[in-house]
Design brief:
Elements (H helix, E strand, L loop, with lengths): L2 H13 L2 H8 L3 H15 L4 E4 L2 E4 L1 H27 L5 E7 L1 H4 L3 H11 L3 E7 L2 H9 L5 E5 L7 E8 L2 E5 L13 H5 L2 E5 L4 H12 L5 E6 L2 H10 L4 E4 L4 H5 L4 E4 L3 H4 L2 E7 L6 H13 L2
Parallel strand pairs: 3-4, 3-5, 8-9
Antiparallel strand pairs: 1-2, 5-12, 6-12, 7-10, 7-11
Helix pairs in contact: 1-2, 1-3, 1-4, 2-3
Length: about 300
């Protein structure tokens, strides 16, 4: 087996589809199918289960993916390092980021970075804080930007900046005229919340449980744009850093009201990497750019 065979297998495992893997690797789907069939024949065991809903790894496939994922990532880093020795300054930066920052900050940072490093590409996903931390640990990504995760094994927080959780309401909402709010007051009204894998939701749940409060949660979603839309509609409120609603606040569609609670006031957005892995040239340079932005 050549190394490309394992790279093809890992891409199929990551995407759950031979066709999507082929698109990302710029090869024909038939070439990937053929290499994986040869790999299964060589090992004498099925690695993938194919169905109408997609592809699932067998137990053997999960074992192989676990051991070859790091190998493929290390090979990519070696190729990048050799190219950078030749002065080409190429590579790909894989970043997962909380939804709040995608439209507000990331485009400007990436545009400025691209002026200095035009050959470096980006792979950007919006994900929950829990899923992002998992991806860093699994070496799926280089950098994660998360919300208020606290101490996690294997994770190094490179930079953090204050992002107090506030109450976001329509100017028409009964709470809109308040200068600050308690969590008791917030929990008395219908609220739209992100799902529990979001650091924002975890912080909120931790505090409300400690205070023995039961929020009137009428929406749970993995889309912060939807929580804001519910608040804009008028009857429902939501929560989040003022940053995520800067456009709506500027347009007078939402108001951001501070919450009188120390934990909510001390929440942070954090830039994270794996504690024991060396970043590629491309990822290291972009990490410096992000940290410079928030200095």
């Amino acid at each position: 087996m050549n190394l490309n065979t394992y790279k093809y297998f890992n891409e199929v495992a990551a995407t759950g589809s031979i066709r999507r893997a082929a698109g990302r690797l710029h090869v024909a789907p038939s070439a990937i199918s053929r290499q994986i069939s040869l790999l299964e024949h060589s090992l004498g065991i099925m690695l993938l289960e194919r169905s109408n809903t997609g592809i699932q790894l067998t137990t053997a496939g999960m074992m192989l993916e676990q051991y070859t994922r790091k190998m493929c990532r290390d090979l990519d880093r070696i190729h990048e390092a050799i190219k950078n020795l030749k002065g080409l300054r190429q590579g790909e930066v894989k970043i997962w980021v909380i939804e709040a920052l995608v439209q507000v900050i990331m485009p400007r940072i990436m545009t400025e970075f691209n002026e200095n490093y035009p050959a470096i590409q980006f792979s950007i996903n919006t994900e929950s804080s829990d899923r992002t931390i998992e991806a860093i640990i699994r070496d799926e990504i280089d950098i994660g930007i998360v919300f208020n995760i606290g101490n996690r094994p294997s994770i190094e927080v490179i930079k953090q900046w204050s992002a107090p959780i506030q109450c976001l309401v329509s100017p028409k909402h009964p709470l809109a005229q308040y200068q600050s709010l308690t969590l008791d007051e917030i929990c008395a009204y219908p609220i739209a919340l992100p799902v529990s894998s979001f650091g924002l939701r975890q912080t909120f749940d931790k505090v409300t449980r400690a205070l023995h409060l039961i929020p009137q949660s009428i929406v749970n979603t993995n889309n912060l744009e939807f929580t804001k839309a519910m608040a804009i509609a008028g009857r429902t409120l939501t929560i989040g850093p003022k940053l995520i609603a800067s456009k709506e606040i500027e347009q007078n569609l939402l108001c951001a009201i501070p919450i009188d609670n120390e934990t909510m006031e001390l929440a942070n957005i954090e830039i994270c990497v794996h504690r024991d892995r060396t970043l590629s040239f491309a990822a290291h340079q972009f990490l410096k750019q992000i940290c410079k932005e928030f200095d």
